[in-house]
User: Fold these one by one.
Assistant:
Number 1:
Amino acid sequence: MTITVPDPSQKHQRREHGLMLALVSPALLVILALIVLPVGWLAWQSIYHDGFTLENYRRVFTEDIYWRSFALTFEISLAVTGIALLLGYPVAYLANSVPKGWSILILSLVVLPFWTSVLVRAYAWLALLQRTGVINQLLRYLDVISEPLALVHNTFGTVVATVHILLPFMVLPLYATMQKIPGDLMQAGASLGASPSLTFVRVFLPLSLPGVLAGCTMVFVLCLGFYITPELLGGGRTVMVSMLVSRNVELYNQFGAASAVAVVLLVSVLLIFLVVSRFISLDRILGQK
Amino acid sequence: MTRLSPARIVLYVISALVLVYLILPVLIIAPISFSSARFLTFPPPSFSLRWYEQYFANPAWMQATRVTLTVAFFTVVIATPLGVAAAYAISQSKLRIMRIIHMALLLPLVVPIIITAVGIFFVYAKVGLVATLPGLVLANVMLGLPYVVISVLAGLQSFDPAQEMVARSLGMNRLRSFFAVTLPQIKSSVVAGGIFAFISAMDETIVALFISGGQYQPLTKRMFTALRDEIDPTIAAISTLMTAASFMLVLLASTRQKRSG
């Protein structure tokens, strides 16, 4: 069958498509101008300076200061992810296994800090952890220590505050996944004679793994790019990749080097998302606020 | 199941400790802000409002507050309609490219913010937007868009597009039927998205560190600089006010979302 007359429904559909594209275009324009273009600019600047050059990447991959910073950032991110999982799993498990009212209370406490500025929380941790801070004063009052402990302006302080900020990103996907595990599966395990701990290890834990993966990915990726917390609580010694970027821009005017570091960081993040998306859908990672 | 086994008790204790860890920093700031002590002492020696007075009497802090509120206001005014239009198109259109556009609109959540910040700084330096109010607003619109889009898309999921069809078949044009039929039903998610965009603009620090300057520095940039130099309890007063503002806004957003079901 050949169509000679323009199909009115087709024309209608084309108008519809046009309208929808027009509606989405202002938002898309903002995204293109303010994130796609800037990131593209960084990528360009990292390889072009009066001609093409790979000098910036050579530096990032060979010079000690860059190398060490990347290594440290990955180590801290791994540690933060591991601790967040250890702390977050029990809380998510508890929230999932108690009556509705209690689980709402637990989840509210989890997301409460979420809505406090990262800056405010950095201040709070300084107040808690510094030499004359609340924790040191309390420990001295209780005669546990005689000299104040160095709890902040080092990697320890950075990790404590970073885990605090990222913990909700672990608990929420874990809880969402646990919610979908049918309760009768556990009962089935019990009725077949398995002990509660065996049922947990053999039934519940494997079924919660997608949540573990989603939470760990989000925490790890966010931690890779963390800036404010290590800058304020790291005491200048914990130089994470993000600080390398900002120092190269603000202090040394090394725009090419800063761009190369930023590109390597971004590629790492995108690779992680790409690998993880083969196992679970990206919506699952990003869907939780 | 509810019998208290040893494992269960361990679970309760660990969870309780984690929850304390989560909320302790949020709770510690307010007492510090009402303390009379210059240096941090806990518990505070006596009650005082001096840090609040210092904040409200300081022209630099007041100017920064004005900048923050102005930027947050314009961010909401611009990001909300853009986000609603985009979310509507994404949910209604069958075009395959919409999936890609949807992902693109979530980019600000995926790209590490430090990278976005440095990139914007370079682009702004070329076009002369560094240390300007429009520059700050535009960057925050971009950062706030994903919150509006996510919230409104969730609202549209429970909306039946056939209702709008009915309105149109009864003679309303597309625009009127949207405002008369669709918008009232997704109003709560629109308001919630706008509130999240406001909070995001109010708390935004990293982009502001790179692109703001002169008289157009938001509160967060001044706080960051102050925190790097010394710990001044004025920051505690500002933090308490900011936290109170955030919580009230979130409460507002969540009651609205609940009402829509």
Number 2:
Amino acid sequence: MIEVSNIEKSFDGTPVLKGISCVFETGKCNLLLGGSGTGKSVLLQCIVGLMKPDIGSITFDGTIYTNSKVDIRQEIRRKIGMLFQGSALFDSMTVAQNVEFPLQMLTPEMTPAERRDRVEFCLKRVGLEKAGDKMPAEISGGMKKRVGIARAIAPQCTYLFCDEPNSGLDPATSIKIDELIREITHEYGITTVIVTHDMNSVIEIGEHIIFLHQGKKLWDGTKDEILNADVPELKEFIFSSSLVRAAKKVDDESEGGLAAITENDTYGSGI
Amino acid sequence: MLKTFGTFVLFMRGMVTRTERFSVLWNRTIDEAILIGVDSVVIVSIVSAFIGAVTCVQIAYNLTNPLIPQSTIGYMVREMTILELAPTITSIVLAGKVGSSIAGGLGTMRITEQVSALEVMGINSTSYLVLPRIIAALLMFPLLVILAMLLSILGGYLAGTLTGVMTSQDYIEGIRMDFIPYNIVFALIKAVVFAFLVSGISSFKGYYTTGGALEVGAASTGAVTNSIIAILIADFALAALLL
């Protein structure tokens, strides 16, 4: 479990995160949802340690991460796997070498044979067992994301962070990536945090959703609760999605639940 | 300016604190030594051989006084090559080739989040990416400068004898005349200092690249120009201090 407590972050005097507190639950896909420029990625970077928050604390399973000693931070970082928006695969290495890299660096006690086995297992787990010898430039965007996931889980991470895992992917591939993240989260019981603005992902894997708006946390709950949330900004965000609008239209015609949920709100009326 | 220098000092300090395992650094250093050293042999050889040849021909053109022995040409080629041309011109050439490659490579890694990926894994990215490049440069620059010295003097010999401006005997007599071994030491000290400047400045420019492809190009250009200016300033300072 990751606890974020009263995090604030400013850039050149402009506040980006304004006192965010939230909890990311173990064994669940926790979604950081919000529009562009709401501070989702900044919050994620603060949590993984790529950025230092101005105020506030972050705790990983009871261990305080912010302002702790380098050794403690290193220990926690080694339990973190991250899938970057652009995959961030190392260009000069093959797919297999990319997956092997964290094992080489973080687990020197593993023998080369053990590492090879682990790489094979991880690539097979993401369905890329035959792509090990390819270079990142030779594979598609969806495959790069899967390699990124394989690299993240290779050292048996406890926390998995995904920064917009569906960006640049077609809907079918997006769903596959979402499913893969959900399966891995449940299979290994890890704490997964996903930054997204994609309502498809909310519907697909949103077990615990935190909605950010203008640097503030406005709502958190499950995907079943999100359509009932009484937060205007969240409703505006949800119904700005073409998919949800289309679903609502179908619901309206068939008197489904979505129509009932939105019958009194101003956002639904214009759709 | 002062802030940039402070950031550079912190960058260098971060590189040597919390370093990665020796075996990792060793393998990375060997890889970088191949890129910096072995891959630069051809360009350094061509440049140094022609510089030696041109130096010889131009000195011969200017030395028209019959009272000055022809062997002076060989002597002057040797002195100019060892003291200045081999270490400085080689380093400037390497600033263009290696410096832009280091800055471009690190800049691309930065904007494609590969540096962030290393940091998230708990790997000290400056130690992993920059330290091997600097060590490799410190090892390879002196070797390339020695190669440049040899090929420059050989180029002068070939140019002098093949064009008929002097005899083989005169040239060899000239390059053996009044030899001061310290000049070789001085040239190698210059090579080490220039290696640090080129690799350090280029790494710094590349590592702190922000933005996109345009900024990577700007970082490469900045790395080359700043490295060359630093080489020239250090060249003067070392000459004033050590000669």
